[in-house]
Amino acid sequence: MRIYWYWPFAREEDFALALATPGPHDFLTLHALDRPGAPRLDAGRVTVRADLPDVAPIEERSLRWAWSRATTYRARALARRRAVEQGTFDVCHVAFLNQYTDIFDLPRLAKTTNLVTTVHDVVPHRSRFPRAVQDRILARLYSVCGTIIVHHAAVGAELTERFAVDPASVHVVPHWVSPFRAADDRRSLSAAHRVLFFGTLRENKGIRVLLDAVAQLPVDADVRVHVAGRGDDDLERAVLAAADRLPALTAEIGWITSERKAELFREADLAVLPYTAFASQSGVLHDAFGNHLPAIVTDVGALRASIEDPGAGWVAPTNDSSALAAALVEAFRDPIGWQHRSDAARTVAIDQAPERVGAALRAVYAEAVGVAGGGRRGW
Question: What is the CATH number of domain 194-351?
Answer without folding.
Answer: 3.40.50.2000
